[in-house]
Amino acid sequence: MKHYIKGGNETKKGTKKQLPKPITIIVNKVLPVIVLLVAGFFFIPYVSMNFQNNDVDHINKNNEAIMFYSSTCSHCRKVYPKIFWHNILNFNNDDKQIQTINVQNPNNKHYISEFAVQETPTLMKPNNPDIRVVSTDVQVFNDFSER
Hints:
Layout: H1 21-51, E1 65-69, H2 74-89, E2 98-102, H3 110-114, E3 122-124, E4 132-134, H4 138-146
């Protein structure tokens, strides 16, 4: 014969420990936003590089420079995020923008021969195509664009 003890497995309401309300708000509301912002900071340039419709119909002579890149180039993947955020930060300044041209896009292939692009990433002055630099060093790109 079994004997049951009354109330042995019952829990009383309100005995669960809860986090204080400010910490709950931070964990549930603020932390996901911070995580999304950080993830976006790292992944948005790569999405832009690979999936944007980059049909360039003309070279903008008002821009600071032009970057020819290939979305499959490992060196371009290293440099492109810096150029992307540079353009975002200088959104309203045409003379500070760096125009990006994906030479892998079939509509942009003519720029390879037109500007004698042999390697990517290539950074070039729009008003003087003879002034160019091919590098994976972001500091070299910064120095070039400041000249």
